[in-house]
Amino acid sequence: MNDLDDQISALEQGQTTINAKQTEQIAYALASSIPANQVLAFHGELGVGKTTFIRALAKAWGIKENVTSPTYNLYKIYQSNDRCLIHLDAYRLEKSADFENLMINDFLNDPWCLAIEWPEKIEDSIPSDAWHFYLTIEENTFHHLRLARLQ
Ligand SMILES: Nc1ncnc2c1ncn2[C@@H]1O[C@H](COP(=O)(O)OP(=O)(O)OP(=O)(O)O)[C@@H](O)[C@H]1O
Ligand SMILES: [Mg+2]
Predict the structure, then answer these.
(1) Using a 6 Å CB cutoff, which residues line ligand 1?
(2) How many domains does the chain have?
(3) Which domain holds residue 120?
């Protein structure tokens, strides 16, 4: 196993972070092992750190713009030499048809990453090979992060 495999399996076991910086470090280290053309689904309550994680991925991929919450415009597109990142906040979507209507697939330049907050709103549109991140806050203090890959 190399370092990246180690990082992925550590995340699959679940990791605890005590501040946002630690969450960012985990994301930063993981970024290069996320395959091209990958959907990432971020599950977790308000303020649990979904955007924080995605912002650090963007930095690691050389995206200069600071990733901010796209809640009011649903999604934002970022581009670097490394990756076309589309950050979708599905919170205000009600069903998969709403997602299909956005025609996001038309904007995905290979190699791309589609990072989705609140994926449960558009469950039927999440591909089976998506990577799922489950974020929680334990005992009102520790943030916990776990990766699940179904394929
Ligand atoms: N261990 C931690 N990991 C991540 N964020 C943390 C941690 N500890 C504190 N924070 C703080 O919690 C907040 C997380 O906000 P963030 O916008 O990333 O959440 P979110 O899950 O995207 O929320 P929303 O559903 O509203 O979009 C940030 O202010 C961050 O600094
Ligand atoms: Mg967010």
Answers:
(1) 17-20, 22-23, 44, 46-52, 69, 117, 143
(2) 1
(3) 3-149
Residue 143 · residue 137 · CB < 8 Å: yes
Pocket test for ligand 1, best of 24, 51, 142 (most atoms within 8 A of CB): 51
Amino acid at 40: L
Does pTM surpass 0.90?
Answer: yes
Q: What is the pLDDT of residues 33-81, one digit of tens each?
A: 999 999 999 999 999 999 999 999 999 999 999 999 876 789 999 999 9
Residue 11 sits in a domain of what CATH number?
3.40.50.300
Q: Whole-angstrom Cα distance, residue 126 to residue 25?
A: 26
Closest ligand (CA of 134): 1
Q: What is the dihedral of CA 136, 139, 140, 141, to 10 degrees?
A: -90
